[in-house]
Amino acid sequence: MNPPALLPLDDAQARHAAESIGRLRRVLQGVLFGQNDLIDLVIVGVLARGHVLLEGLPGLGKTELVKGLARALDLKHKRVQFTPDLLPGDITGNPVLEEVDGRRAFTFQPGPVFANILLADEINRASPKTQSALLEAMQERCVTVMGQTHPLPSPFLVLATQNPIELEGTYPLPEAQLDRFLFKVDVPAASVETLERIVLEREIGIPPEVPCVLDTHALTTLQDEVRRVYMPPPVANFIARLVAATAPTNPLAAGVRYGASPRAALALSAAARARGLCQGRINASYEDVRAVALPVLRHRLVLDYGARLEGLTPDGIVARLLDAVPAHDKPLPTSLKAAKV
Amino acid sequence: MSIDTNLAGGAGAAHWERRARLLAAEINAGWWLSSWLPTALAIGIAGTFALLWARWQAVELVPFAWGAIGVALVLAAVAAWFRSRPRFESVASARVLLEERLGLHARLSSAAAGVGDWPGRRIDLDGRWPVRLRATRPAMLLAMVGAMLTAAMVIPVADAGAFRRRAIEAPADAEIVSKWIEELQREKAIDERSASDVNERIEAILERPRDAWYEHATLEAAGTLREQTAADLAVLARNLAAAERAAADLAAAPSGASSAEKHRDSQALAAAARQLALGGMRPAGDAGAKLGKEAAEALADLSPEQLRELAAALRANRSKLKAALARAANFDLDAFGSDSDCEGCKPCGTCKECREGKPCKKGACAACSRAGRGGISRGPGEAPMKAGKEEDLGATRRELVTAPTDVERSAAGELLDVVDAEHAVDESAYAGPQAGGSIAPAADGGGPSRVDNLLPREQDAVRRFFK
């Protein structure tokens, strides 16, 4: 059921929103070459008020993407390089003893988390304690230090990266914390054409020019419009069946130890709505769900040892589920066959 | 990617809703068909047997069999509809299939929920349809049912009625006698007791097991009954004629006739009456009643008028008897005799035959006393292969085999022949080399033949012959 208080969008509003998003997309495509899917997912994540976990090798342009996004949206951004000795206060901020008006008192010094966009580089290298401090801020969108709660600026988006090859000295994020990320996106290596374009158009140390195409208000408006994108009951049913199919008891999800949670269904819904708006539509569709299912579900599926030994991956299982779970939930009689249109 | 949002308001709604309804109907028809077809196949198989059975039993049952098949198919169709109903596709569900397969991005569901407008009709999607009919299996099943039913109508089937018609029928003689009695009763030519006596005898024959109806004893009994009945009827006719003649003579006797003549006539009438009363067949009606009531001695005292009436009644009874038997099949009226055959038998009234009601030999006329009136009709006829005394089959006669004979296909006897005669030993025949010691001396007459003198083919023939 869609929230009754929110009026659905009309087509004109949807088209206008899509035009704004299109401008943002074009700007980001000028910052990060050859990563259109990544850019689209990041935009969808921003619009859906979700956080994005990027997994890929260093030097693929993750930081550039965050910087470009911040500049294009005229947002304040921070970058934190996570290390094992990083403390929670280094993220959230620390109380500092100061003398004010002849009295000594603790004054809260906000940490880097107090930004609109936070790039948490190599998040899995920090200790679990530090990780949980950031993840709590991501979920609650506020920081509590010495009993005092400090709200984070809005919009607030965390783009975290983790390096898949440096396993030594890392602390893998627990499943409960991974669940807080809307997307986990694999950043692919650049193709030859992309590299050629980078070589031709970029220089080390000189950041690209990024025009501001949306201000904070416009971004907030877009985020509100995402909530007004209509979720048709059949699409909601499709999401529900897709998430339910990840349960270990389901034969389709053989090899899954823990399936996706209801939060995953909410994430799918929000991402599908955001993608629908990106496409200029007033409603989410089955295609939107399918497009965002992989980044939404892949980090929420925990495989058992047998599956991992067999080489199964969450991506493969999600792909299998997408093939097996149809949008139309009723079977057809044997005298009919679904036609490819 | 964007969809065509060329909205057409109500037209778009009508277009897509019509397509959704059509799709739902097609899917539901598919469910119904998949539920109905197995039952239809079963009905087809059962119907095939029903048709074959109907054609075997009676052709009149075939329309009923078709009707039953039709009703069963209709009932199965209704049952299939109820059975498949839980799986039926709603229009909303069909809309989902439609929008998903045609890439309409859930716009139909949204529009149906009142969010956004219905998408306009898209020419490029007009020819597209989310499902495709897989008609092979249903068509094969239906064709199989049709072929089975057609085969059931085409395959030659023997009529069971023919078997029934070939059922064991009562022996022909019993049937014939039954027909005779039927005709006689219809004509009221014999009394009921005589008829029931004969019918009881027929029933006694038919009470035997059907398998035994054509045994020799049964056939013999039926044949005897037929002969006996025919003889009784002939006797009845003859006695009626004799009684009529006696009554007529008595009535016509002049008043001045001698008492001896009257006594003789009255004795003849009394004898005829007695024979009628004691015969196997008794007349029906007035004649029988009158003759039965009057004592033989009292017949002489009847007035001429009464005697004439009696004669008329006897004549009428005889006419009825003859008319009935003329209609009855297989009755030899020649054996029955004609009115003119009898030249006027005068039963003596005193002999043993007269007392027992049999034809009087003493007083029989020339026609009635002729030989060959026994009425025996059985025996050898003119047909070939008749049963009878075995004749000389000519086995002892010598016949020359003149025709070219295929030795391979001939029996030994055809080649060697069988002759009753003395052996004609040719003493001058060459008996083989004598000097070197013969191992195959010529056979003496009556001695065993040495088969090693024969060719192998001849040895085989000899061996077969003696085997």
Can you tell me about this structure?
The complex is a heterodimer of chains A (about 350) and B (about 475). Chain A is built from 13 helices and twelve strands. In chain A, the strands form four sheets. Chain A has a five-stranded parallel sheet with strand order 2-5-8-1-9. A two-stranded antiparallel ribbon of chain A has the order 3-4. In chain A, a hairpin with a 2-residue loop joins strand 6 (about 140-145) and strand 7 (about 150). Chain A is an alpha/beta fold and about 350 residues long. Chain A folds into two domains: about 25-215, P-loop containing nucleotide triphosphate hydrolases (Rossmann fold, 3-Layer(aba) Sandwich); about 230-330, Magnesium chelatase subunit I, C-Terminal domain (Helicase, Ruva Protein, domain 3, Orthogonal Bundle). The mean pLDDT of chain A is about 90. Chain A is globular. Chain B has about 475 residues and is an all-alpha fold. Chain B has two domains: about 10-160, no CATH class; about 170-355, no CATH class. In chain B, about 55% of the residues lie in helices and about 0% in strands. Chain B has helices at about 10-55, 60-85, 90-100, 105-110, 125, 135-155, 160-165, 170-185, 190-205, 215-250, 260-280, 285-295, 305-325, 335, 350-355, 410-415, 455-465; one strand spanning about 130-135. In chain B, helix 10 (about 215-250) runs antiparallel to helix 13 (about 305-325) and helix 12 (about 285-295) crosses helix 13. Chain B is elongated and about 145 Å long. Chain B starts with 9 loop residues before the first helix and ends with a helix. Residues about 1-10 and about 370-375 of chain B have low confidence and may be disordered. The chains are: A alpha/beta (about 350), B mainly alpha (about 475). The interface of A and B includes residues 8, 234, 283, 328 and 341 of A. Strand 12 of chain A pairs antiparallel with strand 1 (about 130-135) of chain B.
